[in-house]
């Protein structure tokens, strides 16, 4: 159920029409209101398993990007920083949990030691190809999302490192820097930032994109508030959430404050006012709408303070507005969820890529359960029965004086040992 809090602040509309700008903003001081955090089990269920799903999809992209469509375990270990897995979890243990997605075989190194390699199962390969087809089909949509993200920033620029942290949430290809950006030199420019990082700059401003999701949905607003520019956010609270009368009155009046587009310059706003806070809420309301699942980790948001020209402690808006945002504390992190985007645990508008992720999740669950039942017992010579595949790798690496990373960097081969007993 969505609540639209309009309040009885009729004077605000009158004041806005007759006293626009700086004077009005100065009269709306930031009210010190604290709303309690209440656990939402339904939205927590949306977050549960997200970390493992993201890691699996990332590994699938890494393996499929290799010309041989398979990689040794130590190569995957080099990419561990992209996976977000717990430090005490061995990567080989994690990959072996999902035999419906990853197929393991072993190749001897130059010393004769068997090194685990991983490829994708036929089912995973087919699903990944479907994913690539959807990315191609919806490329314009993904481009628009990336353009709008850059349009939210003050300099129309973001470090690639920041975009890398957001690419999963926005549905961008794993290799977007190479597969997407170079195809559109009229839109994007890679440049060196003052801190020596590489940044992505938007070259073309599109007024068609500079309309926020809240502005698009003005049909749900009251006509008088649309005319005055006082747009209200959809509000949902966790079942059982008790809102005191004082907080209800404040929220009522806050909703009737003027809405500032996240795509417009807001440097004239005093950060100590409620109207400035409403602009910050609007920025992240729009930002979460740019993500395909309407959620992101809080640490990703924290990195956007300077690019978005926001004040210190701007993330406090998530605590102050639990009817708009939900902070999930599942999976050892904090995830910001846009409440209005969900009908219980289901996305109201589901992007096709979300459907692909759901199918990966189902495959993971099936593989994990089957493996726990002993249906995927791995023998000591797993994969070596495929003589043709083994010979290909032996021939290739014998020509290149192949050595495993264990030999070249002294990594203990205990990493390669079977861990079937681990879950």
UniProtKB/TrEMBL annotation:
Q: Which GO terms describe its molecular function?
A: RNA binding
Q: Which Pfam families match?
A: PORR
Which residue ranges does the record annotate as region Disordered? 401-423
Q: PANTHER family in the record, alphabetically? A: EMB|CAB68190.1, PROTEIN WHAT'S THIS FACTOR 1 HOMOLOG, CHLOROPLASTIC
Domain PORR, which positions? 38-367
Name of the protein: PORR domain-containing protein
Instruction: State the organism of origin.
Output: Camellia sinensis var. sinensis
Q: Which domain of life is it from?
A: Eukaryota
